[in-house]
């Protein structure tokens, strides 16, 4: 059904370079005639909300442990009703986010209430399309180091307005299509989970028993280790490595005056997404940003101690990172790649060491005090070689699944943009969908739990 979609019969020029041609029978209206700004405050007992780039606007407790501390003056926060849209004028790269519940949110957000003739489902898809998000740069004000969206200009911007029946059909089709694509992505994630579990078993066995299955064993005295070969030692992490805490002392962290310079800056997401080596980065610091951070050399083994707790990877370039990441420089008695495997094997123990609170941060002192196995150097090298050989096929399968997931996401992004901007006609396809594929006026949030990002998190800090 998706492959058979065709363009509309007649088009006209929208007059908007970012939008191009639209179906001839579609209208255009300024956003202020479709949405009104909601500025209500004084609802301190409503639940706190978080704006995310994949789930929309949700309750903070639904967002999990990756939330930040909200403002203490709850009466100053803005009211958001179910079906409203919110946008952070400072961090707008994700478009406008649809609210799936009532609550209150930081005054740094602009809250938009759809008028009666705006179908939330259609604009929920349109506002997340790559075409609309790219258009937001037209409404930026300020110099590079302090850019924000000028809402008055944005409110005067034109957006397409398909007939109501087509808005409903587009919403219905895209929810159905996105659901199919999300199920395909979910199936591939399950394969990744199975392959990862197999690899974890190989690593666990190797770093606790070594490459020689017949070696005599002794109790390690460490809970997660159990028995180890008799000729191995047990050391504390702080005895085997030099621990380097990341640094980023400026608040708010998203102050644009600190970024867009020559110094790579990695955060917890890059560590969590790396297979083993961190090969790229999304942000850079300028000299002002460097002054509140510090550079760690390429080759440093890094671990996340907040958000994605216990994820490890190896830097391949000099980079700065915040205090939610810790660096490790191994001593001469321990190989870096072997230490990487040890940290992989002890992730469950690292999670148990994290205190149970809203942040779930892992304490650096606790990491340093944890025991790890220390075989002779030659044994360490044999273990690394054994794991690399045994896990090569598993790693290849995981990488292939990740590439296929990225392709599916790219295809979904392209499909949504083509449909909401009228490049493809889905009315007939929507009419052929089964009754259980009905779409309500709201678009359902996608299940992207592994890459959810909080929008403008510093806006909600005290």
CATH class of the largest domain: Alpha Beta
Strand content: 15-25%
Number of helices: 13
Low-confidence runs of at least 5 consecutive residues: 63-71, 439-447, 454-462
CATH superfamily of the largest domain: DNA methylase specificity domains
Mean pLDDT: 87
Just name the CATH architecture of the largest domain: Alpha-Beta Complex
How much helix, percentage-wise, in residues?
A: 25-40%
How big is the Rg? 25 Å
Molecular shape: elongated
> Please, how many domains?
2
Query: How far do the termini sit from each other?
Result: 50 Å
Defining key terms:
462 residues, disordered C terminus, Adenine-n6-DNA-methyltransferase TaqI, Chain A, domain 2, elongated, alpha+beta, 13 helices, five-stranded mixed sheet, 2 domains, 34% helix
Describe the structure.
- The strands form eleven sheets. A five-stranded mixed β-sheet has the order 18-26-23-24-20. The protein has a four-stranded antiparallel β-sheet with strand order 4-11-8-9, with no helix packed on it. The protein has a two-stranded antiparallel ribbon with strand order 1-2.
- The chain contains 13 helices and 27 strands.
- By secondary structure, the chain is of the alpha+beta class.
- Helices cover 34% and strands 21% of the residues.
- The chain folds into two domains: 11-184 and 405-460, Adenine-n6-DNA-methyltransferase TaqI, Chain A, domain 2 (Alpha-Beta Complex); 211-374, Adenine-n6-DNA-methyltransferase TaqI, Chain A, domain 2 (Alpha-Beta Complex).
- The model is unreliable at 63-71, 439-447 and 454-462 (pLDDT under 50).
- Helix 5 crosses helix 9 (336-345).
